[in-house]
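All the exercises in this workshop are built on plain-text protein records. There is nothing in a record beyond a sequence line and a structure line. A learned vocabulary of local backbone shapes supplies the integers on the structure line. The question running through the whole workshop is how a given chain folds. Here is such a record, shown just as it appears in the course material:

***
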Amino acid sequence: MRWTSYAAVLGVALALAACGTTEAPRPTGAPGYKVGNPYQINGVWYYPAEDFNYDETGIASWYGPGFHGGTTANGEPYDMNAETAAHKTLPMPSLVEVTNLENGRRIQVRINDRGPFVPGRIIDLSRRSAQDLGMDRAGTARVRVRILPEQSLAMKMQALGGGAVQVAAATPATPAERTTLASNASTATPGAGDVGTGARGEGAYVDKTSAPPVTVVPVQPTAIYIQAGAFTQARNAEKLRAELARFGRAQVTVADVHGTQYYRVRLGPVGSVAEGDRLLATVISTGHGDAHIVVD
């Protein structure tokens, strides 16, 4: 299963700043609805919870052949050809909308696993999901992940009432589909007569080259930052900013979160995911274990 696979490749994973240990929660029983208890991976604590307001930007990765046929944290067989994903804290199952901020491609995927346990990653997609988002070749992408509350609550009710959630059989993308997806990822633009008005968002272009549908939304410029902390007191943020200034451009920005004003300490912007990974590792090594990559 996936957790055993992580342990088996731990030596390589550490060298590549990769994921998990055998401390991760293991699946028990038949698939159903699971949130789970707090757990620790590589010294970092994660706190699973029902969060139907979840909306985060960051870096996505994907996992495939090495785990295909294993068991997910939800107790299901992992199918790399299904539209699924791993998340560190969201309920299993729940449905999220993932937007590739680099090319505008948007899909919906079902959370049924835990991960990724690599610093700087917020979601680990199945191979098919990565193909549909046009990021399977690059391996990573800047994304926005937003939970779909109504659909996720419906999944919860189904899982609690009838056991496992019914999932349509998945089929791998054909070579022709993969070529089309890669091509459309960089060239698709909204076109007349192809405007969707359903759950995927009014005004979004519907790409009919794959199933389930992939939509393409306008691409906005984004930048990668390392967020080292967020404080309600400006003086605390300024203290951290001064400490981190030796690593690059450190700044304090103000954000309103549910009526509370926070002072966020960020480094950047940086030019690439690889550069962000290096800077994040440096910040974490100085004792700021909560630092993470954000995309704005």
In short: The chain has two domains: 2-162, 224-295. Residues 206 and 215 are 4 Å apart (CA to CA).
